[in-house]
Specification:
heterodimer, A: 440 residues, alpha/beta, D-Maltodextrin-Binding Protein, domain 2, disordered N terminus, B: 308 residues, mainly alpha, MetI-like fold, 13 helices
């Protein structure tokens, strides 16, 4: 209520960012010169481990940490979680730039792109060795590898797909849509009253892009060229994929609003199908036991090939940590070494793993051999990682989606506007810096 | 009841401040110090630092900061999303301020009546203040859900077409304003209520005896006497309107298609999404200036009207 109020909030946040800046001036020094000072066991070490809140992951991580603490003398790991919406943008960013915060924490690929060049993360390849990395799909490590340095250990591979209300489709005698056209012809009759045919994300954020990418890719399109020299979103393929989402919304097939990434609308019966992925299965089976969930690949354009994306988080170590040796040891123990840990987590999350031996074990589990999860096993090898685009590119794409879905803008105009924004970004010095990182 | 003479400050003997004993001054300074230091650290420091940062290019995590003069301010003018957010914020003010000021005044008049249930209503209208923002916003999201929400159900009952609400760039802003108004109106009702109850009964009684109806009594007695409160409420609601963020973050994420992309959302995005501390700071400074200018203008305008 104070006059300075909201500005104060921004200012205070900025001040938080800044107050630590002084103490943060030589993070690299501490990262390279901090030897294993505490492994001799003189003083007990407490490691802070940060991640976002997730009710499915929480019990698994708590028991893993309990096990680690019981088997590692002199080291205690403390788990701290934050609301998903505030986790990266507010908590991690402000803490890292202030040189405080966690020893070990979860990051997205885009965060690694921001933090690693600034020396805020510790390279992990000495503990996350080549032998261990050989067990991971190479493309799951691309986004966190710059030159020889590997900055994150992935643990999940949430594959995309279409989830649907099986009983409803059977009762109405409707075929599960396999093509873009069938999204309209099959889901159209299911969109009536309080129920919409299809759930696609409506909020303007990266999750919306994430779900849209396979529609773009399966049509042969890309947001930017391979060498990041120019925008290609306004190609014919891009315009068509944008138009598809615009039409789905404007013709009343798509639900006008969406709640998030876990498909509650499907459980509540307000949508017939949802373009989401396997990670939502745990929520749906847990909270909506009456729902019979079906899964199928995302519908394709004429002549298109399936190209689902997978998202996932990485465990990273902060260079501001005073106990880097212990932090690295914990990080690699968590999901880089013994397979049981990763199996326990991904099983609870109903996702696969980018780690070959872990996914092999998951495939043997009864729930992964049955519907709806069994369908995802086939695309495990071909799926593409979510591109680690900087926010400038991601926002341009989100803006285009919002414009066609809610702004009454034509797909061509929206695509051209996005291409112009992306091109002007690609000409900036900042983009040049990222290009050189990716070339390494 | 106060007599008019008491308002004449000149009749009170004035004390010379300079003759204060030094011990007293030291004690005062000592007692004020925690507050002054606290305010300086929490408010003044960050504000000054924000102004300083608005002249630099900085990503918030790198040790390098480059002085860029007024480039960040120029950047705002060239950034269409800043212009959009300015437009959205002004629309927000135009809807929110009359809605909350008028609504709070109306409620205050209603609950000021000496009815047995008045106290109950006061509590009910004040309750939304106590509801956590996120909880309130989620409930309203369900109420305004286009395909199965309660409002569209009501519209269909009376034969009106359902509305897109939160999935329409224009209607979403209205919903956001309404939710914010719902949350704040009880607070300003209490403020108006205090002012209305402070109006001396005798004035109203005398006016009634002279034959003034309820409307006339309000217009000629209550309205002029509560003017300072009205100024306060208008200024405060304008400030609140320009600072809203939480509801929008929960309800719409600034969408759809930038329909609820207010100034603070722009600042948030620049700072935490794009890591552009310079433009974020410059936008904060500009918003601060807008709020200050509007507040001063409103106070002057109302004072001027008062002197007629």
């Amino acid at each position: 209520m104070k006059l300075a109020g909201r500005i104060g909030v921004a200012a205070v946040a900025l001040a938080l960012v800044v107050t630590g800046c002084g103490s943060d001036s030589e993070p690299e020094a501490s990262s390279t010169t901090a030897p294993e000072q505490t492994t001799s066991g003189a003083e007990p070490v407490t490691l802070t481990f940060w991640k976002y809140q997730d009710p499915v992951q929480q019990p698994v991580l708590e028991s893993l940490i309990e096990e680690y603490n019981a088997t590692h003398d002199g080291v205690t790991v403390e788990l701290q979680t934050f609301p998903f919406d505030q986790y990266l943008a507010e908590k991690v960013l402000t803490a890292m730039s202030a040189g405080t915060g966690p020893d070990v924490f979860w990051v997205s690929a885009a965060t690694v792109l921001n933090f690693a060049p600034e020396g805020l993360l510790v390279p992990l390849q000495d503990v996350f060795t080549e032998d261990l990395r050989a067990d991971f799909l190479p493309r799951s490590l691309d986004a966190v590898t710059f030159g020889n340095d590997v900055y994150g250990i992935p643990h999940e591979m949430g594959l995309q797909g279409m989830l649907y209300d099986k009983a409803l489709f059977e009762a109405e005698g409707v075929k599960v849509p396999e093509t873009w056209d069938e999204l309209f012809t099959e889901l159209g009759p299911l969109s009536e009253g309080a129920r919409s045919g299809l759930l696609i994300p409506t909020n303007p954020d990266v999750f919306q892009n994430f779900i849209w990418w396979p529609f773009l890719w399966s049509n042969g399109g890309e947001a930017v060229s391979d060498d990041w020299s120019e925008a290609t979103i306004n190609s014919e393929a891009g315009v068509e994929a944008l138009a598809l989402w615009g039409d789905l919304m404007n013709e009343g097939i798509a639900a006008p609003t969406s709640s998030g990434a876990f498909g509650d609308e499907l459980g509540q019966g307000t949508v017939a199908a949802a373009a989401l992925g396997m990670w939502a299965v745990s929520n749906l089976t847990e909270n909506y036991p009456d729902l019979e969930v079906g899964a199928s690949p995302l519908p394709l354009p004429p002549g298109g090939t399936s190209s689902e994306a997978f998202g996932g988080w990485y465990t990273a170590v902060s260079s501001a940590s005073e106990h880097q040796a212990e932090a690295k040891d914990f990080a690699v123990w968590l999901f880089g070494q013994n397979t049981e840990n990763a199996v326990a987590l991904t099983r609870a999350m109903t996702t696969l793993s980018p780690r070959i031996s872990v996914t092999e074990q998951l495939k043997e589990l009864p729930e992964f051999q049955a519907e709806p999860l069994v369908g995802f096993l086939d695309i495990w090898e071909s799926a593409r990682p979510e591109p680690a685009y900087p926010p400038e590119i991601n926002t341009a794409v989100t803006d285009a989606l919002q414009a066609v879905m809610f702004g009454g803008v034509s797909a061509q105009d929206a695509a051209d506007a996005a291409a112009a924004t992306i091109n002007s970004y690609l000409e900036s010095a900042q983009a040049e810096k990222i290009r050189s990182l990716l070339d390494q | 009841m106060k007599r008019f003479g008491q308002y004449r400050g000149t009749t009170l003997p004035r004390r010379k401040v300079t003759k204060r004993r030094s011990g007293e001054g030291r004690a005062a300074a000592f007692l004020l110090a925690p507050d002054v230091i606290g305010l300086a650290l929490i408010y003044v420091g960050p504000i000054l630092f924000t102004i300083y940062l608005s002249f630099f290019s900085w990503n918030g995590i790198s040790p390098d900061r480059t002085f860029v003069g007024f480039d960040n301010y120029q950047y705002l003018l060239n950034d269409p999303s800043w212009t959009t957010s300015l437009h959205v914020s002004l629309l927000y003010v135009l809807m929110y301020v009359p809605l909350v000021t008028g609504g709070a005044l109306l409620l205050a008049i209603l609950v000021a009546q000496e009815l047995p249930e008045s106290k109950l209503y006061r509590t009910i209208y004040f309750l939304p203040i106590a509801v956590p923002i996120v909880v309130g916003a989620i409930v309203w999201q369900l109420i305004f859900q286009p395909s199965y929400g309660f409002i569209n159900y009501l519209l269909q009952l009376v034969g009106a077409p359902p509305q897109p609400w939160l999935s329409s760039p224009t209607q979403a802003l209205f919903v956001v304003v309404l939710v914010s108004a719902w949350k704040q109106v009880g607070y300003f009702m209490i403020i108006f209520l205090a002012a209305i109850l402070a109006v001396p009964r005798e004035y109203l009684e005398v006016a009634s005896i002279d034959g003034a109806g309820a409307v006339r009594r309000f217009r000629s007695i209550i309205w002029p006497l509560i003017r300072p409160t009205t100024i306060f409420v208008v200024v405060m609601t304008t400030i609140l309107a320009l600072q809203d963020f939480d509801q929008i973050f929960v309800l719409t994420r600034g969408g759809p298609n930038y329909g609820t992309y207010v100034q603070v959302y722009y600042i948030y995005d620049q700072m935490l999404k794009f890591l552009r501390m310079g433009p974020a700071s410059a936008a904060s400074v500009v918003l601060f200036l807008i709020i200050m200018t509007l507040s001063i203008a409103q106070i002057r305008l109302f004072r001027g009207a008062n002197n007629d």
